[in-house]
Amino acid sequence: MSSDIDTLHPLDIEGTRLTVKKPALRYDRQGDMSDDRRVEAAMRAFVREFGATSAAYLESCIHCGMCAEACHYYVQTNDPRYTPVRKLEPFKQAYKRESGPFAFFYRMFNLKPRVTVDELQQWQELIYDSCTMCGRCTLICPMGIDIAHLVGQARHGMFQAGLVPHELWAVAERAEREGSPLGATPKVFKDRIDWLSDEHGVEISVDREVADVLVSMSSVEIMKYPLAIVATARVLNALGEKWTIRLDGYEATNFGMLSGNAQWQKDLSMKIINAAIKCKAKLLLLPECGHAYGAMRWDGANMYGKPLPFEVLHVSEYLARNLGNGRLKVKNLPKSVTFHDPCQIARRGGATQAPRQVLGKLGVELREMSPSGDVNWCCGGGGGVVTIHRADDLRYKVFQIKMKQVDESGAEMLVMSCSNCRLTFDDGQAHFKWDKTAHSLLELVADNLVQ
Amino acid sequence: MNLLDFARGPALEWSFAIFLFGVLWRLLGILLLRRVHDYSEPRAHRAALGALQAIVRRTWPRKEFRARTTYGLAISYVFHVGLAIVVFGFVPHILLIRSLLGVSWPGLPGAVIYFSAVVTLAALVMALIRRLTHPVLKLLSNFDDYFSWAVTIAPLVTGLLAVAHYGGRYENLLAVHILSVELLFIWFPFGKLMHAVLFVLARGQTGVVYGRRGAST
């Protein structure tokens, strides 16, 4: 760092600890490519996937700045660097210079200079630490630009350049190598299942040759919220489903997608797809995990290269369906509840009503947050952000929006249908010594089943 | 050839040619790129409806966003509507369009036009001030933003001067006004003014994606 550190990093005297506002410019690098090769790899990966859709988006921005007003990072910091569309700047620049309709102009007169590795390094924080790909910006954009989708594409470039926050890179690499980002290997998972099955006296079917329903899990659940496995088993057993968990394809989180490695994304998705095909499943049940839903429900078939030969449902959709048709029955729960919508399931997934139907069947008094549903605020932990340590301060800042929303709802109970959101809420609760605990919708149903 | 003849003759033809060719080039440059097929099973078969909904609804923000966006949007609305009134409501403009395209419609009274023009001018100035002072807009803005602003306000200013016969011979004022419009035509395909066409594309495709998912468009 140069001597201008004092002016660039003013003191933060409002926080609880005295520090500079932004401690230091920090970024991670993987591999030992030269700087030029990094830039080249980033741009190649970014441009390779460039289709008409993304081009129309990048061409349409009118720099109106409205996306900032929808972004929790901007709203909580007032720092214009966090303006969503600006997070794409190097990639927009590369697009205009390399493959836009007037690329020859831009190159001839050097109107858009070549992107440098310094820029990419600076943008690492913007593309990863301060974007959960929650898509509120997509919803506010008057041009309809799907900024969150473009950030996902930019991550592909960053991954190829070896410029991913190290924790996110490491869990993605572990997922590719071991089959799970958080150490939920087949052996660990099997041990957990045996233990849970004993402990809770519930039958958990593993590695059935043929099954109607294949159950997938999030490693967050396997490692931190194992009762989700018990709850899933209770529900499926109550329904008398012919179901199974398969050790050759169970991990539904997709850190390939979150880190930006398209090949790993495909590898991870194909494990589950192949397992479902092998056991002739009619239904693939996705766990309470937002990005797992996006990865499989909307990207799965595209990884497979053709329509999937089975139905894909988030567990909240599955519960809503079976409570709706009366196959599943629950006791009345005389409580007031507020529901946190996971972005990838509601806003970007379209399954906004399912959890509300489930809560309706439970007979709770639903106290919606303001705003809620498709416009709900993100918890701040999605998109792999919860794994990135250096992003913690920023994450706590944006989490305060959620605390306020939950507190203002006045509900007795806080419920959600994403274990990654829940992890973020648990961490936020501990950090702020907050009195609200996040609960799982699935576990709530399982705890109130009428046998 | 005097300035007015130039403005009405070769300048008009060339600017129009550049406008048309540029718009087509930019559109084809986008549309001819690869399109990936989406194999996911749609929740709702309402891609077309989604596109239409997005194209129409994105014209105004959802109520949840209004509190934070009303000021900027109000300015934009005023100058968009104001420009439309001046461009399509002023009788001499209608006569010109009739001579070029053969279609016409009744014009608006002069007072309405002048009022709109002045209000539009004020809104454009406010838009510029906002761009120069708002931290987000300041950071986002580039040459295109300022130049597009300039070529938008220029016809308005020159038109008002021509109508007021202020600043020179009427023929020259009119010529400058026409030339300023031609500058706008020439710049249109290359900068952000193109959003007048592209908004349909960008909104439409987001509408298709989220319409299929059964999500908010």
Helical content of chain A, roughly?
A: 40-55%
Summarize the largest interface: chains and residue counts.
A-B, 64 and 60 residues
| Oligomer type | heterodimer
Helix/strand order of chain B, N-terminal first: HHHHHHHHHH
Low-confidence stretches of chain A: 1-5
Number of helices of chain B: 10
Order of strands across the main sheet of chain A = 4-3-5-6
Percent in strands of chain B: under 5%
Beta content of chain A comes to: 5-15%
Shape of chain B: globular
Radius of gyration of chain B: 20 Å
Mean pLDDT of chain B: 95
Taken together, the total number of domains of chain A comes to: 3
What share of residues of chain B is helical? over 70%
Secondary-structure-based class of chain A equals alpha/beta
Features:
heterodimer, A: 451 residues, alpha/beta, Fumarate Reductase Iron-sulfur Protein, Chain B, domain 2, Rossmann fold, 3 domains, four-stranded parallel β-sheet, 10 strands, 50% helix, 7% strand, disordered N terminus, B: 217 residues, mainly alpha, 10 helices, 76% helix, globular
Could you outline the blueprint of secondary structure elements for this entry?
The complex is a heterodimer of chains A (451) and B (217).
Chain A: H1 5-8, E1 11-12, E2 19-20, H2 35-48, H3 52-60, H4 66-70, H5 72-77, H6 89-98, H7 103-108, H8 117-129, H9 136-140, H10 147-160, H11 166-178, H12 186-200, E3 213-215, H13 219-223, H14 227-238, E4 243-244, H15 255-259, H16 262-278, E5 283-286, H17 290-298, H18 300-304, E6 311-314, H19 315-324, E7 336-340, H20 354-362, E8 365-366, H21 392-409, E9 413-416, H22 419-432, E10 438-440, H23 441-447
Parallel strand pairs in A: 3-4, 3-5, 5-6, 7-8, 7-9, 9-10
Antiparallel strand pairs in A: 1-2
Helix pairs in contact in A: 2-10, 8-10, 14-23, 19-20
Chain B: H1 3-8, H2 10-31, H3 47-57, H4 63-89, H5 91-101, H6 110-133, H7 135-140, H8 143-164, H9 170-187, H10 195-213
Helix pairs in contact in B: 2-9, 3-10, 4-6, 6-8, 8-9
